[in-house]
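Q: Given only this backbone (340 positions), what sequence would you predict?
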């Protein structure tokens, strides 16, 4: 019998790549995708798998105990990729981040525990390198680095990680936590740096670079992230944290210039804007553990991955228009509910 995976947040950027990755495996997994379809959840990300008989979409909230418990039924593996994910939004409105990323994670964990089934093989909590805070000029985050998150987003993720690991220590739930660096690739909501800058620059609009633009991130292609999560599904040891990164540190200004170069646009589109509050200076991941223990390696070279990503956004204007249509409808709904 094919194993059943409950994946949350599968209509988002990383979640949708995970859905495709899982359905493509010879193990013929069944995948149930529980997603609330927030502004970042996009059914268009999954058009290619929608009619796959091993795939099922459920629109709903990971904080909904009754629904989660109903779905947990015959599940073998849980992957929690549902989250509020945009740092800037967490600065302007932290509440929903705590609700989704902390409480939602606990609802899933508790439901998995209540299932009281020894058959739950793994619970994978998808997390981020941002939980470690900021590095100086040198050094790398390892799995034992202190958790020193800076933003409400990263703090909510760190809290989710700790609660997940407590379910391993306290109840023996087979939890693994993955902490990945910054992802890029097709299907990313265009509020994040790379898709936003591609979109602005391709329309000859300014690209807003925070501060001096020298904040460093360690970039990884979303397909490499999916493959790493799959390696953890297959052989990750319960109770362990796995860092995921592609050893590809770049500062924001370099990335911005690279995007402009690919699009053949001038550097005069760059606008330096007031820095983000609490902006972490540098992230860099040591992924030695997952590489040696589980044999995972990143496969996508950054320059070709970035070119392919730029091309994807240029080739998919309908996807971008639909995102904007949904965002406008969402704002109208919100304004209506606030009586504006
Ligand atoms: P995303 O914002 O593109 O997608 C998040 C998805 O979660 C959306 O489909 C949304 O509808 C869904 N969701 C939100 N609240 C929900 C709820 N209450 N119930 C059910 N579904 C809900 O995010 P992403 O970039 O794909 O990130 C996915 C995960 O990976 C997150 O946990 C994030 O912290 C982590 N992560 C992201 C990155 C990155 O660079 N994007 C890097 C490392 C880790």
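A: Predicted residues:
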């Amino acid at each position: 019998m094919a194993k059943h995976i409950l994946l949350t947040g599968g209509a988002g950027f990383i979640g949708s790549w995970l859905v495709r990755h899982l359905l493509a495996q010879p193990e013929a997994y069944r995948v149930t995708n529980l997603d609330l379809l927030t502004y970042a959840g996009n059914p268009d990300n999954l058009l290619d798998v929608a009619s796959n008989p091993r795939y099922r979409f459920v629109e709903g909230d990971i904080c909904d105990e009754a629904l989660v418990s109903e779905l947990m039924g015959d599940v073998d593996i849980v992957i929690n990729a549902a989250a509020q994910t945009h740092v800037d939004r967490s600065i302007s409105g932290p509440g929903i981040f705590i609700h989704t990323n902390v409480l939602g994670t606990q609802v899933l964990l508790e439901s998995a525990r209540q299932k009281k089934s020894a058959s739950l093989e793994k619970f994978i909590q998808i997390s981020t390198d941002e939980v470690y805070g900021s590095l100086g000029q040198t050094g790398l985050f390892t799995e034992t680095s202190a958790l020193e998150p800076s933003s409400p987003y990263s703090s909510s993720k760190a809290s989710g990680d700790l609660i997940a690991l407590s379910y391993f220590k306290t109840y023996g739930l087979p939890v693994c936590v993955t902490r990945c660096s910054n992802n890029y690739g097709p299907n990313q909501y265009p509020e994040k740096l790379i898709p936003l800058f591609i979109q602005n620059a391709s329309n000859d609009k300014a690209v807003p670079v925070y501060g001096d633009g020298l904040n460093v991130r360690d970039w990884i292609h979303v397909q490499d992230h999916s493959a790493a999560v799959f390696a953890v599904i297959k052989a990750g040891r319960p109770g362990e944290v796995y860092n995921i990164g592609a050893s590809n540190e770049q500062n924001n200004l370099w990335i911005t210039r690279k995007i402009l170069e690919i699009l053949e646009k001038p550097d005069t589109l760059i606008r330096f804007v007031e820095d983000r509050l609490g902006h972490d200076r540098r992230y860099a991941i040591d992924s030695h553990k997952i590489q040696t223990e589980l044999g995972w390696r990143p496969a996508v070279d950054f320059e070709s991955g970035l070119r392919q990503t730029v091309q994807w956004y240029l080739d998919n204007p309908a996807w971008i228009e639909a995102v904007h249509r949904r965002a406008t409808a969402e704002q109208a709904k919100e304004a209506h509910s606030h009586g504006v």
